[in-house]
Amino acid sequence: MSTRAARTGKADGCRGIPVPRRRRTRRGAVLPPLRTSVAGPAASEAGRPDDRLERRPDGRTDGVVEGRRFREVLGTFATGVVAITAVDPRDGRPCGLAVNSFTSVSLDPPLVAFCVAHTSTSWPRVRGAGVVTVNVLADGQRDVCAQLASRGGDKFAGLSWTGSPGGNPVLGDALAWLDCAIEAEHAAGDHTIVVARVLRLAALADGEPLVFFRGAYGSFTAAQPEPVLPEPAPAC
């Protein structure tokens, strides 16, 4: 897998994990910060730990997982990248965002899930449609991904797309698409886990997927099968 592309900055919706506040007793004595837990790989950049706390080699500081270390470790888990698209029912314009937390959940019924930061400015427009379309992005769509991950402006300016059977944007050159009805949303730390039921789907191309690894876009290369060697002739 190659990660030649430039590293990305803050995407639409990314935000830090707040630093725990200190507690005070009735007499005003300062106690250590409350212990907190960070939920799942969807968490993004964290606040800076108290400089007076001793930092340990395992990335923990007085029981609190340091955000920078958390992202570094979770970045070793390579993921695909999808674009979640819809048509805003308020103005009839296409809207969307890029997500790398997409996963299948269930075969019966067919369910998928993805995570969206609470600070996302695009998600309120997308979720208003009720039915969204998941576009599986191809390796050649790095610029498309970066455009959809940006904040503000017309994210679909210059993008080629057609309508899915449900009417949502299917991006040109995407590997596949899935029309999905939002079924549930679960708050999880600084993100929301969205569960959706697959209504329709199709694979469009046989190309390679866009990959996200160690904070950078990359590409996937399938391993070549080992050649089958003939068995040696029996000894005389």
UniProtKB/TrEMBL annotation:
<feature type="region of interest" description="Disordered">
    <location>
        <begin position="1"/>
        <end position="63"/>
    </location>
</feature>
<dbReference type="InterPro" id="IPR002563">
    <property type="entry name" value="Flavin_Rdtase-like_dom"/>
</dbReference>
<dbReference type="GO" id="GO:0042602">
    <property type="term" value="F:riboflavin reductase (NADPH) activity"/>
</dbReference>
<dbReference type="InterPro" id="IPR012349">
    <property type="entry name" value="Split_barrel_FMN-bd"/>
</dbReference>
<feature type="compositionally biased region" description="Basic and acidic residues">
    <location>
        <begin position="47"/>
        <end position="63"/>
    </location>
</feature>
<dbReference type="Pfam" id="PF01613">
    <property type="entry name" value="Flavin_Reduct"/>
</dbReference>
<comment type="similarity">
    <text>Belongs to the non-flavoprotein flavin reductase family.</text>
</comment>
<dbReference type="GO" id="GO:0010181">
    <property type="term" value="F:FMN binding"/>
</dbReference>
<keyword id="KW-0560">Oxidoreductase</keyword>
<dbReference type="InterPro" id="IPR050268">
    <property type="entry name" value="NADH-dep_flavin_reductase"/>
</dbReference>
<protein>
    <submittedName>
        <fullName>Flavin reductase</fullName>
    </submittedName>
</protein>
<feature type="domain" description="Flavin reductase like">
    <location>
        <begin position="74"/>
        <end position="219"/>
    </location>
</feature>
